[in-house]
Amino acid sequence: MPNKKRDNIFRAIADPTRREIFHMLVLASAALSINEIADHFPMSRQAITKHIKILNDVGLIDIVPKGRERYCYADPKPLKEIHDWVMYYEKFWENKLNLLDSYLKEKNKKGN
Amino acid sequence: MPNKKRDNIFRAIADPTRREIFHMLVLASAALSINEIADHFPMSRQAITKHIKILNDVGLIDIVPKGRERYCYADPKPLKEIHDWVMYYEKFWENKLNLLDSYLKEKNKKGN
DNA sequence: TAATTTTGCAACCATATGGTTTCTTTTTTA
DNA sequence: TAAAAAAGAAACCATATGGTTGCAAAATTA
Question: What NCBIfam families does the database record attribute to this sequence (chains A, B) (predicted)?
C-alpha cells in the first residue's frame, strides 16, 4: 500500500535547493515573491518556480497572489509526516545499540 | 556550503523501496541476506542490491559478509541528521500558526 | 497609452535514477 | 569433484529530474 502523499513529501525535501528555499521562507519575517526568492539563487527564475511548485504541491509553501506578484509563505505543518516517520526509529540511535553491535559483541564473547 | 553527507541521507530515504528495505531490517529480529531481502520485493535482486548499496553508503545498513552470503543489519543512527533537521521546524506546526495564518488573520481584522 | 515588471507556459536538453538482463566469480553442498 | 547457490559486475534502457531559453500574458508605472 503505497502512501503517495508521504512519498511526495519525502521527495520534496530530498533536494537541497528546495530545503534552502523552504528554510529561507521560514526565516523570512515577511512573505517573499517568486523573484525575491529567485534572486538568492544562482539559477534561473524558472528553475526556482519549478521547485516552488513542488513545495506548494506538498503543502510546504502557501502562495497568495497579489497583483502581478505571488507571495510565498512557508508552512512547516506537513513536516509532521517526516517527524512521525523518523521518530519511530529514535529508540535505536538513542540506545546507541543496534543489531550489528549486538552481533559483534556476542561474537567477541564467544571468541570466534 | 553544501552538506554532501546530509544531502545523501535525504536522498537515500526519499525512495519508498529503500524506506521499506530499511524498515524490514529494523523489524527483523535477525540479519537478512541480500536474497532474503530481495525475495520480499517484486523487482529483481540486482535492483535491490543497488538500493542496499545506497543505504549502506549513508550508513543506514551495515553489511557483514559470511561465506558466500552478505548479512544486512539496519543502523538507524544516521537518521539523527533528519531528526535534527525536522525538529528545527517543530515549533511551527506545534503552534498550528504560520506566517500565512498570521497574514490572513491580520487581513480579516483590517477588513480589506 | 506605452514601457516595464512579474510571472506562466512550453519546448528543449543533459544527466540521474530505478529498473532490467546476462555473465562471471566465489562458496557451499550433493 | 560437479552442481547449485549467492552475490557482484557490466551493459543497457526508459523515464524522471533539474536545469535552460524564448515568448506570451497580465498588472503596474511612467
Answer: HTH_metalloreg
The answer to whether A70 CB sits below 7 Å from nucleic acid chain C is yes
Taking only the tens place, the pLDDT of each residue in B19-61 is 999 999 999 978 999 999 999 999 999 999 999 999 999 999 9
Class of domain A4-110: mainly alpha
B26 touches strand C (CB under 7 A): no
The mean pLDDT value of chain A amounts to 87
> Given an 8 Å threshold on Cβ–Cβ distance, is A99 in contact with B74?
yes
- Tell me the C-alpha distance between B9 and B1, whole Å: 17
Nearest-Cα distance to chain B for A21, in Å, is 14
pLDDT surpassing 90 at residue A7? yes
- Residue B44 Cβ < 7 Å to strand C: yes
- Per-domain boundaries in chain A: 4-110
Among the listed residues B82, B81, B101, B21, the one whose alpha carbon sits nearest the alpha carbon of residue B55: B21
pLDDT score of A107 more than 50: no
From the CA of B91, how many Å to the C1' of D22? 43
pLDDT band at A48 (very low <50, low <70, confident <90, very high): very high
Helix (H, G, I), strand (E, B) or coil at A111: coil
- Dihedral sign (CA B82, B88, B93, B98): negative
Cβ-based burial of A34 (10 A; exposed 0-12, middle 13-18, buried ≥19): middle
